[in-house]
Design brief:
By secondary structure, the protein is of the alpha/beta class. The chain is about 40% helix and about 10% strand. It has two domains: about 5-385, Alpha-Beta Barrel (TIM Barrel), CATH 3.20.20.210; about 395-755, Alpha-Beta Barrel (TIM Barrel), CATH 3.20.20. An eight-stranded parallel β-sheet has the order 1-10-9-8-7-6-5-2. It has a five-stranded parallel β-sheet with strand order 15-16-17-18-19. Strands 3-4 form a two-stranded antiparallel sheet. Helix 1 runs antiparallel to helix 2 (about 30-50), helix 7 runs parallel beside helix 8 and helix 21 (about 570-590) packs parallel to helix 22 (about 615-630).
């Protein structure tokens, strides 16, 4: 009989219970026991959902207080020595200091988990790294799951992927740590075996990338040792195909392999042919990255040949962890009646697994009702008149390459912009958002509930904008922002105002730590019926004589941070988004806005894991951005922002965007990310982030001057800007003002050192 399992489940809770528990703990309003109780309740609730769906195993070890990669560092005792923490006596408070920083140390570096919008904390390794063991919260969770009486499958990041995701000093070979790391894994696996665990899932998504030979060889070193622990190992690949390495992987002494048949359905033939007779194949047939309902008939047709060949050696699963989708449709009361039947969140995907397994094991007739509903949903979606907008299609057909080119090259534009803007050397600015106070959230919620009028809401938002502008002028920033008080999210806000999008009430997913986002759903062609930001930005500009940035989210980020329709190429949807945002850019310029920021933090995130697919992606992604920005005159300055990613490999594409100013996150890496821009000789203006906005730590002016000195070694002074790493939405006003004041003082110090003091200073 085919069995079912999942690779992981969302941690945050259907109503973001983990988020609120964490933030209460950080504020000192809840103690350790209270936080633990919330976590226990969430884990038990999610395990019960898996049991109710008749899964063959419930999955444990996938829950994390902040990040699952950090949890592995904690389990192995591989903590950054700069914090001075005892790995075996780590407290919850110290755990969060690793993630968020403290008064003495910045937080661990954070970057994207493969091509997702989930951020993981990067392990810091060196020749002195020790994996002698730390606190055993992971094992406590597994014991808790075992007490329920169902078969339990713990999940760990595989050792090769763990090393591959880590960072170390240049020139140090992280693979030299493999023997000691394997010993640590052996220790944990033996502990699990002693608890009665039969199967352990080892996630190796690095196999979906193009690995150098030494990294592939590492699997042949590590896994024979791990197999000697006597436990059944499930080696899991996802986010793409691992078939390139299949012929070598099947020789490893593991009992099972998981493959992603959503991203790479073609690999099933390779794995079926190569699979050893003793091994299980886990078929990832339900999409773990998107919210569209599974076409059960198509999935069953794909699974039947595998079931005929493998029988009980076939397991059925989502393509990857369900971490990347919301918890349940149960709490969605206002979803469009036409679109809702086409959706499946995590709990609904559990049901889909059960239906597919029963169809294989008991016959399709046993679940005929579910298949009828699935067929109807698929047909309704195909036939919907709301999917295709002929106005959009006609406009797309008229797009030319010339529409994506600025009128003059950067070297000519920048002189006109400096003349128009009259900024001092080394200008200061922020990335866009300011603290979202409780008053702002309450006003927005009251307006949505129709408890206050549109006029009252507008007055409250304008009051927030007035305060934001006043605070910035008092601090002394050079280029201001309106603070985005009216925006719940940088993607959702625009999605609410575009046709072709649908918004959920509780479709939350974790981005990092307690930070949750609610990706909107693209179900049809994208069209902007009217201006979205113009009145707000025009009002903000009326409050100051300094330049006010118009703040927009770019087409690639709108795409990446949405749940995207799967009935047309992603590049086609990006082009539709580009035209909609282009219209907003044009209207902002007509309203007198001289600086417009089009954020693209997801550009690197969207890069395919296989290099052979990079050129195609970067071609349409760069074109989409340029189409958005190129409508303005030379005198209008275009900014963009990127963060929490490695940019080295795509610097030519970033330069091809031709933004006048790019701001990037660099403080957690001590400006290391900036080195690549210097080596590449990036041609336009750059604003490297000088402080980490995700940490409550307020850096001193001296801290930031030190980083600016580092930046000035690779960026010509005339092209250097000063700004935080990212938006300040999640911070409080007191710390924000202190940090920005220190930042402005740092810029003044550098100007003074270089003899660039202005009359204003």
């Amino acid at each position: 009989m085919a069995r079912t399992h999942i690779l992981g489940f969302p941690r945050i809770g259907a109503r973001r219970e983990l988020k609120f528990a964490l933030e209460a703990f950080w504020r000192g309003e809840a103690d350790d026991d209270t936080l633990r109780r919330t976590c226990t309740e969430l884990r038990h609730r999610h395990w019960q959902m898996q049991r109710d769906a008749c899964l063959g195993h419930i999955t444990a070890g996938d829950f994390a207080l902040y990040d699952h990669v950090l949890d592995h560092c904690v389990l192995f005792g591989a903590l950054p020595p700069r914090f001075g923490f005892d790995p075996r006596a780590l407290t919850r408070a110290q755990y969060f200091e690793l993630a968020r920083g403290n008064a003495k140390q910045p937080a661990m570096e954070m970057t994207k988990w493969f091509d997702t919008n989930y951020h993981y904390l990067v392990p810091e390794l060196s020749a002195e790294s020790c994996f002698a063991g730390g606190v055993e919260w992971f094992l406590d969770d597994v014991k808790d799951a075992l007490a329920l009486g169902s078969p339990v499958k713990p999940v760990l990041i595989g050792p090769i992927t763990y090393l591959w995701l880590s960072k170390s000093a240049p020139g140090f070979d992280r693979l030299s740590l493999l023997p000691s790391l394997v010993t640590a894994y052996e220790r944990v696996l033996r502990q699990l075996h002693a608890l009665g665990v039969e199967w352990v899932q080892l996630d190796e998504p690095a196999l979906s990338t193009e690995l150098a030979e030494q990294w592939v060889n590492a699997y042949e070193i590590a896994y024979p040792a791990l197999a000697r622990t006597g436990i059944n190992l499930m080696l899991a690949t996802y986010f793409g195909s691992g078939s390139e390495y299949a012929a070598r992987l099947v020789r490893l002494p593991v009992r099972g392999f998981h493959i992603d048949l959503v991203r790479s359905p073609e690999q099933q033939e390779i794995w079926r042919a190569l699979l050893p007779e003793h091994a299980v194949l886990s078929a990832g047939i339900v999409d773990g990255r998107n919210v569209w309902r599974t076409d059960l008939r198509r999935a069953l047709n794909l699974l039947r040949p595998l079931h005929d060949a493998l029988g009980e050696r076939l397991w059925i699963a989502p393509s990857c962890s369900l971490l990347h989708v919301p918890v349940s449709l149960e709490h969605e009361r206002q979803l469009d009646a036409e679109v809702r039947p086409c959706l499946a969140f995590a709990s609904e995907k559990l049901h889909e697994l059960d239906v597919l397994a029963r169809a294989l094991n008991e016959g399709e007739a046993s679940v005929a009702e579910a298949f009828t509903a699935s067929d109807a949903a698929q047909e309704a979606r195909r036939a919907s008149r709301r999917v295709v907008n002929e106005v959009v299609r006609e406009r797309i057909a008229g797009v030319t390459s010339a529409m994506a080119e600025r009128r003059s090259v950067y070297a000519e534009r920048i002189g006109k912009q400096r003349q128009a803007l009259q900024l001092p050397p080394i200008p200061t600015t922020t990335i866009g958002s300011f603290p979202q106070t409780q008053a702002v959230r309450q006003a927005r919620a009251a307006y949505k509930r129709r408890e206050i009028t549109a006029v009252t809401y507008l007055q409250r938002i304008r009051s927030e904008i007035e305060q934001a502008v006043s605070r910035q002028e008092n601090v002394g920033l050079d280029v201001l922002v309106h603070g985005e008080a009216e925006r719940n999210d940088m993607v959702e806000y625009f999605a609410e105002n575009l046709w072709g999008y649908m918004i959920t009430e509780n479709g939350w997913v974790q981005s990092y730590g307690s930070r949750c986002v609610k990706p909107p759903i693209i179900y049809g062609d994208i069209y902007r019926p009217e201006p979205i930001t113009v009145d707000t930005i025009r009002y903000a500009q009326s409050l100051t004589s300094k330049p006010m940035k118009g703040m927009l989210t770019g087409p690639v980020t709108m795409l990446q941070w949405s749940f995207v329709r799967d009935d047309q190429p992603r590049g086609a949807t990006a082009l539709q988004l580009a035209l909609a945002i282009r219209d907003e850019v044009e209207d902002l310029e007509k309203a007198g806005i001289r600086v417009i920021q089009i954020d693209e933090p997801a550009l690197r995130e969207g890069l395919p894991l296989q290099r052979g697919e990079w050129e195609q992606y970067l071609s349409w992604a760069v074109h989409a951005f340029k189409l958005t920005a190129a409508v303005v005159r030379d005198e209008t300055q275009i900014h963009t922002h990127m963060c929490y990613a490695e940019f080295n490999d795509i610097l030519p594409a970033i330069a091809a965007l031709d933004a006048d100013v790019i701001t990037i996150e660099t403080s957690r890496s001590n400006m290391e990310l900036l080195d690549a821009f210097g080596a590449f000789n990036y041609p336009n203006d750059i604003g490297p982030g000088v402080y980490d906005i995700h940490s409550p730590r307020v850096p001193t002016s001296d801290d930031m001057v030190r980083l600016l000195h580092r930046a000035a070694q690779v960026i010509p002074i005339e092209r250097l800007w000063v700004n935080p790493d990212c938006g300040l939405k999640t911070r409080g006003w007191p710390e924000t003002e202190r940090a920005l004041r220190n930042m402005v003082n740092a810029a003044h110090q550098l100007r003074a050192e270089l003899g660039l003091v202005t009359t204003q200073e």
